[in-house]
């Protein structure tokens, strides 16, 4: 059995970074708190991603809250995907009670209750910053993945986007895309134009694409596509030196898996394309926390899973860290799990044979330690305790340490409806993105063009009623199609008059 002195020496050495760091708690040995051992994580390695796991009720959300608070103290903004809706209390100061007094008394840290700057966000019309994106920003490849199109249908989508670019038809929302598909399918001029310049397209394939778009609309995507488009750089705010904690409330993820996949793909793509390369900057630029990740991985499309795997591997160079919060490590795909440098493991319960398999798998993912019987202790960790292993500043895994975690300094409860309303009413970002902008885009332009074609194809009859109604005539002149209509009217009128003269002769 290892002695306490050796434990203190080894753990203190390995958990004492040279640069900036965050503090999560104190080390424990033989069930006792060791105040000499601070469990700290260097900011330099936060962008190496991580996992917070544990059974229901073991304190994962509070650990996430402490983590986000510590980052905020260092001016690092974050985005928390709040699936359960219990994270918003970070916007208000906590209150001291007997449990908190006891916890901080044991660790020797001082408790300073305080609020943190927060932005509430939504993709489904709730109170908060409305996140939107345009169809054009997604592009044909990403949109085809979201709609789960096959190779043939994806190539058609690329042709349709090319057609819209060449013809100056902006694709802002799904109505624009549907109208363009209708135009090149049902309208004679559009169909002929597409066929002569881009090749013939099967109406059956276009119909399948339309059905996929309708299915996406039924999950609430109508409000997501549009303008103003959300600028991901607005996630990087700081206030009074603290990083802003952006909270995206997605409690209805299970009923809207495709919409959520759409948002995640859009977010990953925008961050990767627009954030500059950071290299080893000393601390991350931004951290993304995905709470209840098992729901996301269970409901996510294959496309989203593949995209998450790709982004976890690539996005680190942008100074972005991604952290998954779930119940057991096995909820996270192996290809993603292998990329996570930091692991915070709360208690797991071995009630069933499958539970015990998950425990064994979890223990195998941690460094071997002489200080704990990991397989036994992982089932007996108390609330607010966890196994932690991370990467030091050289990228080497730190020893597994039983940690007595800090309590949040902010409120450990949700905001009331009144507090949510007050918070959002003061937000400059809510005001910036609140009103949808309905510019003239493909839908309006093609509708006008199709109406004009109908007018031009209709026979023009000169009558007394036409002369007797100057207001109607003026209305036609003032319409969008007025100029073209008058040209047609003059041409047909001239033919009519010449015909009369010829008859007299």
From TrEMBL:
Pfam hit, one: HerA_C
Superkingdom field: Bacteria
Domain Helicase HerA-like C-terminal: 36-475
Entry-linked InterPro entries: HerA_C, P-loop_NTPase, T4SS_component
Gene3D superfamilies: P-loop containing nucleotide triphosphate hydrolases
SUPFAM superfamilies the record matches: P-loop containing nucleoside triphosphate hydrolases (SSF52540)
Name the UniProt record assigns to this protein: Helicase HerA-like C-terminal domain-containing protein
Origin species: Frigoriflavimonas asaccharolytica
Taxonomy of the source species: Bacteria, Pseudomonadati, Bacteroidota, Flavobacteriia, Flavobacteriales
């Amino acid at each position: 059995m290892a002695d306490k002195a050796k434990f203190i020496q080894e753990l203190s050495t390995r958990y004492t970074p040279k640069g900036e760091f965050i503090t999560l708690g104190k080390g424990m040995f033989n069930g006792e708190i060791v105040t000499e051992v601070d469990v700290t994580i260097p900011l330099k390695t936060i962008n190496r991603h991580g996992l917070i796991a544990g059974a229901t009720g073991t304190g994962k959300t509070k650990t996430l809250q402490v983590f986000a608070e510590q980052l905020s103290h260092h001016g690092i903004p974050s985005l928390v995907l709040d699936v359960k809706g219990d994270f918003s209390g970070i916007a208000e100061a906590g209150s001291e009670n007997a449990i908190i007094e006891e916890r901080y008394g044991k660790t020797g840290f001082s408790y300073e209750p305080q609020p943190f700057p927060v932005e509430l966000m939504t993709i489904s019309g709730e109170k908060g910053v409305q996140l939107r994106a345009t169809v054009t920003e997604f592009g044909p490849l990403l949109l085809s993945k979201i709609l789960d199109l096959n190779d043939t249908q994806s190539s058609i989508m690329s042709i349709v986007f090319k057609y819209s670019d060449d013809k100056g038809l902006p694709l802002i929302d799904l109505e624009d895309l549907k109208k363009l598909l209708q135009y090149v399918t049902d309208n004679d001029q559009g169909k002929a134009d597409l066929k002569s310049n881009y090749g013939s397209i099967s109406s059956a394939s276009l119909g399948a694409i339309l059905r996929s778009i309708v299915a996406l609309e039924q999950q609430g995507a109508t409000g997501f596509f549009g303008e103003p488009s959300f600028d991901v750089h607005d996630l990087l705010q700081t206030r009074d030196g603290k990083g802003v904690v952006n909270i995206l409330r997605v409690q209805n993820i299970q009923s809207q898996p495709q919409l959520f996949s759409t948002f995640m793909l859009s977010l990953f793509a925008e961050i990767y394309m627009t954030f500059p390369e950071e290299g080893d900057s000393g601390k991350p630029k931004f951290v993304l926390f995905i709470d209840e990740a098992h729901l996301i991985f269970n409901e996510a499309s294959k496309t989203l899973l593949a995209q998450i795997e790709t982004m976890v591997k690539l996005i680190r160079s942008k100074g972005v860290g991604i952290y998954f919060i779930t119940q057991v490590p096995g909820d996270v795909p192996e290809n993603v799990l292998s990329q996570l440098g930091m692991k915070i493991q709360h208690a797991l319960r071995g009630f069933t044979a499958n539970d015990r398999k998950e425990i064994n798998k979890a223990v195998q993912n941690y460094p071997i330690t002489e200080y704990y019987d990991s397989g036994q202790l992982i089932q007996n960790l108390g609330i607010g305790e966890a196994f932690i292993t991370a990467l030091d500043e050289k990228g080497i895994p730190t020893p597994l340490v039983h940690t007595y975690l800090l309590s949040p300094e902010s409120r450990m409860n949700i905001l009331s409806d009144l507090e949510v309303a007050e918070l959002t009413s003061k937000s400059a970002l809510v005001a910036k993105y609140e009103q949808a902008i309905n510019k003239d885009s493909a839908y309006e332009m093609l509708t006008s063009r199709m109406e004009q074609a109908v007018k031009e194809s209709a026979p023009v009859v000169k009558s007394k009623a036409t002369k007797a109604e100057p207001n109607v005539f003026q209305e036609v002149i003032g319409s969008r199609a007025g100029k073209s209509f008058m040209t047609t009217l003059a041409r047909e009128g001239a033919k009519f008059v010449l015909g009369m003269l010829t008859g007299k002769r």
